[in-house]
Amino acid sequence: MSDAFIKISNLHKSYGLGALKVLNGLDRTIARNDRLVIVGPSGGGKSTMLRCVMGLEDIDSGSIEMNGESYISTGRNGKTVINRALQKQIGMVFQHYTLFPHLTVRQNLTLAPVRAHGISPAKANEKAETLLTRFGLAAKLDAHPSKLSGGQKQRVAIARALMLDPKLMLFDEVTSALDPELVFEVEGMMSELADGGMPMMIVTHDMNFAKNIATEIVFCAGGVIVESAPPQAFFGAPQMPRTREFLKTIRSGGSE
């Protein structure tokens, strides 16, 4: 059996009736133990790749397989076809928390398991307490999001995604909206998940974090993967001129 867990094949995605091409024939295989960190310039297709893997964006053409099964494809009418059972095995955390402000932390965590997945309230509550205790947030169980710091909100958002026992976690710039002193606690939580063997796809601008957590770093620009390598090779000896240009800009304190 192949170790390929996710297989992205010739993926195309555009906006505005094809006027803006964001993914241009993207290919990538992700193994079960991969922590794939995706870096690159703004508009290069990084977040769109994650959103397509999560099934949040329609695709123009191409396919995504999961565990050897068809997960996302296009039907004869050109519409995107998603295997919803497989989609439920993926968790995603966004840049801006997306917590419900009128619900407590406990309620944020238990809402989807109880209402959408038929888990008993008692079992969901027990799991929420276990997760929040594990991540040092037990004291915040009955607090509302307005009473949390940005780092705490993001950690709660990660815990909420873990409530459904995902087989793959996607993180889209989850620390970019945080003050620098709060970044460490969120990245620490992600590192703990990585140490536990959770496969991940991570979009980030934090090159130090990328270096520390990735098994493989992908440089994405122009809707394709320009270069892919383990962290030491990616940062120490990039092969492609476009990659070297990107890293030089980042190291000089600029942005793309």
Strand segment count: 11
**Overall geometry:** globular
Contiguous low-pLDDT stretches (5 residues minimum) are none
Rounded Rg: 19 Å
Kindly, what is the distance between the CA atoms of the first and last residues, rounded to a whole number of angstroms? 40 Å
Topology as H/E string? EEEHEEEHEHHHEHEHEEHH
Strand residue content: 25-35%
| Order of strands, widest sheet | 7-8-9-3-10-11
Instruction: Give a short account of the largest sheet.
Output: 6 strands, mixed
- Mean pLDDT across residues: 91
Q: Please bin the fraction of helical residues.
A: 25-40%
Indicate the structural class: alpha/beta
Helix count, per DSSP? 9
**In terms of quaternary structure, what is this?**
single chain
Topology (SSEs and partners):
Blueprint: E1 4-15, E2 20-31, E3 35-39, H1 46-54, E4 61-66, E5 69-74, E6 80-82, H2 84-87, E7 90-93, H3 105-115, H4 121-134, H5 150-162, E8 168-172, H6 180-195, E9 200-203, H7 207-213, E10 216-221, E11 224-229, H8 231-236, H9 241-251
Parallel strand pairs: 3-9, 3-10, 7-8, 8-9
Antiparallel strand pairs: 1-2, 1-4, 4-5, 5-6, 10-11
Helix pairs in contact: 3-4, 3-5, 5-6
